[in-house]
Amino acid sequence: METVLAITVGIFFAVSIYLMLSKHIIRILLGVSIFGNAVNLTIFTSGRIVREVPPIIPVDLDVPAGITANPLPQALILTAIVISFSFFAFLLVLAFRTYQELGTDDTDGMRVAEPEGEDLPPMGY
Amino acid sequence: MAVQTGHSVDLAGAMVLAATSPADWLVIAPVAIPIIFGAVLLIFRHETRPQAGVALIGLVAGLVCNVLLLMRILDQGPVVMTMGRWLPPFGISFTADVLGASLSLVATLVVAVCALYSTSDIGTIGRRYGFYPFLMLMTAGVNGSFLTGDIFNLYVWFEVFLISSFGLLVLGSEHRQLDGATKYAILNLIGTTFFLTATALLYGAFGTLNMADIARKADSVREAAPLTTLAVFFLLAFAMKAAAFPVNFWLPASYHTPRIVTAALFGGVLTKVGVYALLRTLVMLFPPERELLSGVIAWVAAATMIVGVMGALSQTDLRRSLGFVVISSVGIMLAGLALGSTEGLAGTVFYAFHSMIVMAALYLLAGVMNGLGGSYSLRALSGLYQSHPMIAAFALLLMLSAAGLPPASGLWPKVMLVRASIDAGQPWLAFAVLATGFLTTLALGRAFILAVWRPQAADGAPAATTSPALGYLTIGVFSLLVLFMGLYPQPVIDVAERAAAGILDASHYIGTVFPEGAQR
Question: Using CB atoms and an 8 Å cut-off, which of residues 6-65 of chain A contact chain B?
Answer without folding.
Answer: 20, 25, 28-29, 32, 35-36, 38-39, 42-43, 45-47, 59-60
